[in-house]
Amino acid sequence: MNELQLLALTCPQCGAPGLIREGTRITDCERCGARLILTETFSPKYEAESNLSAAQAVTAARSWLSKRGHPAMLGRPELVLIPYHEVSGRRIGVFERKLPVRREVHRTAYSPQSGGTEVETKVVYDEKEDTKVMVADVQYLTPAARAPWELGMFDAPSARQMARLRTFDLVETQRRATVYAEEQSVSAMAEQRFADKGAAEMVAVSRRTLFFPFWSIPMQTEAGSYEVVVEGISGSVIAWRLPEVFRASSLSWALLAVPGALGLGQALRAALFDTSMIDPVIAFAIGAIACGAALYRSNKPDWIIREWPQPDTIARLERHA
Amino acid sequence: MPDARQPRVLALRCQACRSSLPAASNDVAFRCPQCGRAWEIEAGVLRERKSSYVAPPQAAKHPLLYLPYWSFDVSARVDPGVVRSDGELKARDRAAKFKRGYVSAYAIFRPTYVGEWGITYMRLQPDWEAVHGHGPESPGATISSRDAKEIVRHYILAEIDRAADIGGLDYTIEVSDPELWAIPCYDLGEMIRCPWTRAELPALALDDLSEIRRGRERLQA
Predict the structure, then answer these.
(1) Strand locations in chain A, DSSP E?
(2) Are B68 and B141 in contact (CB under 8 A)?
(3) pLDDT confidence of A275, banded at 50, 70, 90?
(4) What's the N-to-C CA distance of chain B in angstroms?
(5) What average pLDDT does range B186-195 have in this prediction?
(6) Are residues A9 and B25, on separate chains, in Cβ contact within 8 Å?
(7) What is the mean pLDDT of residues A134-148?
(8) pLDDT tens digits for range A83-133
(9) Scanning A159, A184, A254, B208, which has its CA 20 to 30 A from the CA of B111?
(10) Which residues of chain B approach chain A closer than 8 Å at the C-beta?
(11) Mind listing the pLDDT tens digit for each residue in B95-144?
């Protein structure tokens, strides 16, 4: 769970002690009113505003479920904020490289067939020295917490592009949402990402933590209570866990019971009256197998639980722009 | 004696007129709304930078929004060799054209993808009159002037490289001290439009736009 961290500070103007929330950089001195700012490397926190209200999220989930033929009672949606670390900057540098240059070489050769000369053309590739100036954007977005569902289908870079950001306030946010805590610092991730990039230099580096909104909607079905997760920016379903009902499953045991009863009936008839339409051993075997299958099927539920996406089956979507 | 474990804190006041400096979370440089001076956090203290603003076009039809840019006097020179190729001559002419370089200093999402107007202004070399002193309120810069200086140098190099491979060129680039400029654009709601080039940026690409707009509304109120 996320906890509010407070940092102690001293007003440089009046010397009064004060506190600043972690993830906040600017505060006012309570005694003299001076605006104070942290000067050191700082990773601000932002919340990506949800474009969907709770009702719209339920509508999106219901429409998705009806397309898949899953009638379910949807419960009260819960807003969940999952942190992502964003590290961005500009990579600049001057690089030497070798470019292939295509060149045609023509050669005149004697042709014994025609008795004259023919021009043979051959393509040769030379290497040309070239210098490239690089000014490129770099952006990494990585989940900073383990979500209760697989986040592989959440396209964080696209959501980031569409998201309206606002300053994150933990106290205010926790009143209306479940907020997951970061499990790794953004600075550690930045060091890991930007280590050993050759001649390129990273400038204008910005580190921040973005909290993306997700609507977790519980569903009540015949098979129990499950959930569907709707992404709060684009409104698409990114994860679900729900029972999949077998078609005509309630009749399958009856269909198996019919040959079972016939087979056992034939075997019994042969034993009692010594008259049978088919071989009594075969009839008994068919009857026993079919009855066993019918009993087995009637004791199994008519659904199986499917989860999507399966954990760790989808590579995480990360943008390296 | 401050505690060594405590974060280093600075009072955000204009060192000249003592008025409070407006700042957003990511800002490293600020423009004083009272006297128009610019201050940048460098090595834990506020250092003054030259500050100017650009007057908007006279027939401004939309609400104006001033955005911060680092601006530099630049001098680029390419000396063509004895055997002067067309590319070298083109590179020489292109380098001579650059008198001022610009780097956008606001927080923008993927600037070279959605549009970095600093490069555009550098290519255009507009004939703006830079006005000093008290002027419009402008948000702070999120990029340090040191980084901006490196970026502007690479912008110029890239422009010269488009004419001729810089690997074989004899060139010199001089970039002056940084100046924080406030350059106006039109705030169209969903889009931000440049009055001179009519280029547009999606408002969502500007990370701190909501804070910038709030600041402007506060000032107008």
Answers:
(1) 6-10, 17-21, 26-28, 35-38, 45-48, 73-74, 78-110, 117-143, 165-167, 178-179, 201-221, 224-231, 237-245, 303-308
(2) yes
(3) confident
(4) 41
(5) 91
(6) no
(7) 87
(8) 999 988 888 998 888 888 888 888 888 888 777 888 888 888 888 888 888
(9) A184
(10) 2-3, 6-13, 20-21, 23, 25-26, 41, 44, 107, 109-113, 142-144, 147-148, 150-151, 154-155, 157-158, 161, 165-167, 204-205, 207-208, 210-211
(11) 999 999 999 998 888 887 888 999 999 999 999 988 888 888 888 899 99
ipTM: 0.82
> Closest Cα to residue B125, out of B59, B20, B196, B175?
B196
Q: Confidence class of residue A319 from pLDDT cuts 50, 70 and 90?
A: very low
Write down the residue that tokens 């071989």 correspond to: A279
Nearest to A9 among B9, B21, B211 (CB): B9
pTM confidence score: 0.77
Cβ of residue A130 closer than 8 Å to a chain B Cβ: yes
Does position A314 have pLDDT exceeding 60, yes or no?
no
pLDDT band at A3 (very low <50, low <70, confident <90, very high): low
Burial track A201-239 (b if 16+ CB lie within 10 A, e otherwise): bbbbbbbbbbbbbbbbbebebebeebbbbbbbbbbebbb
Cα gap A293→A257, rounded to integer Å: 8
Q: Give DSSP secondary structure letters for chain B.
A: ---TTSPPEEE-B-TTT-PBPP--TT-SEEE-TTT--EEEEETTEEEEEEEEEEPPPTT--S-EEEEEEEEEEEEEEEE--SS--HHHHHHHHHHHH-SEEEEE-S-BSSHHHH--HHHHHHHH---PPEEPSS----PPBSS-HHHHHHHHHHHHHHHHHHHS-GGG-EEEEEE---EEEEEEEEE-SSEEE-TTT--EEEGGGBTTHHHHHHHHHHHH-
